[in-house]
Amino acid sequence: MTFWLKSCPKCGGDLEAVDALLETYVRCVQCGLELTQVQEKVLRRGSRVHVAVPVPAPAVTHEGRHQPAA
Fold first, then answer.
1. What DSSP element (H or E) covers 28?
2. pLDDT attached to residue 15
3. What is the pLDDT of residue 63?
4. Do the domain assignments include residue 63?
5. pTM above 0.85, yes or no
């Protein structure tokens, strides 16, 4: 079993490689986050994995001017 200490991009916890019947996947021991295949490839290359945080788009009024997001 393979572990990456303090490598979870969500909580900073420890990641482990889990061997299932037909596949192997990487998940966080603390928060349960499962990495995507792309994130897993980055992790196995030795790089840091990042989680994309969605950014809300600015609201547009009827006049076409941008308003700050609430």
1. strand 24-28
2. 93
3. 63
4. no
5. no
Q: For residue 54, is it within any domain? A: no
Query: Chain-wide mean pLDDT for the chain?
Result: 80
Task: Tell me if residue 47 falls in helix, strand or coil.
Answer: coil
Six-digit token pair at 42?
Answer: 């980055």
Q: Is the pLDDT score of 66 beyond 60?
A: no
Asked if the structure places residue 8 within a domain, the reply is yes
- The answer to whether the CB of 47 falls within 8 A of the CB of 37 is no
Is the pLDDT assigned to residue 64 strictly greater than 60? no
Whether residue 38 is contained in a domain is answered as yes
Q: How many domains does the chain have?
A: 1
The helix/strand/coil state of 49 is coil
- The distance of Cα 65 from the centroid of its chain, to the nearest Å, equals 34
Q: How far is CA 15 from CA 22, 58, 69, in A?
A: 20, 35, 35
- Domain of residue 13 covers 1-47
